[in-house]
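Supplementary Note 3. Input sequence used for the single-chain structure prediction.
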Amino acid sequence: MTYHVQFLGLVCFYRDREGMLAMLPDGRKPAAGIDPHYGTIAIDPDAILESDGWSRNALDSGIFRLPSCLVAIDGLDTSGFLDMTDHADKLPRLGKINSEFRIDPKRAQTVARVPIRQGKLTAYRVPGGTAVMSQVAVPHDGEVGIVVTPRRGTPRYLRTRAGTEIAITNTAGDYRRVRDEQNHFRLYEKLSAQRDVTLRAPEPADHESLSESPSQHFLFTEGISASLTESCSNTGCCP
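The predicted structure, written as discrete structure tokens, is reproduced below.
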């Protein structure tokens, strides 16, 4: 049996010794001219079986805003085989946008980190938009537990029905009101080991050949993410 995890918005996939680490740059206090971005876990409220540490509003909406944290998901963080053949070369790569860009995980400013240790990673276009997103098909039987461990404070928990789609997002609060001229890629600079590295958004044509995601997550079926553009794409690291 499998379930799917969708990664949406500003998420950089960094290769480490055990697989991949999804890193969400901290965009809660951006530079002038860029809307704040927030890391969230999004889950159909009807699929949540148990929770601890979350507000009633989060449980009712299915949108769980993340503090600075590590997110561990059953199955996803279990060591195994990770197939990246339909992912690694299909995302914009920050080291190609600026050859001086490098990530030092110990210094990177993130709002969340998500270990990915097994499954199949695939790159897609956001339905209705031009942003590049990612999906992991995770081998796992039964219900899925999620542990959010903040840098400060006590862990928070969620448990979902088997097969539930889980979205990890890092986007502006209202996708449909963001000005097109904003370069959200500047927020990826928070991951750079050097603080004077500048990043631009990739061209839309770079990824027009990708298929739209087949996900049935409510972020897509309700049109919430439909206007996301290439400036809010997932990325790969270096080079």
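The radius of gyration is 16 Å. The chain is about 5% helix and 35% strand.
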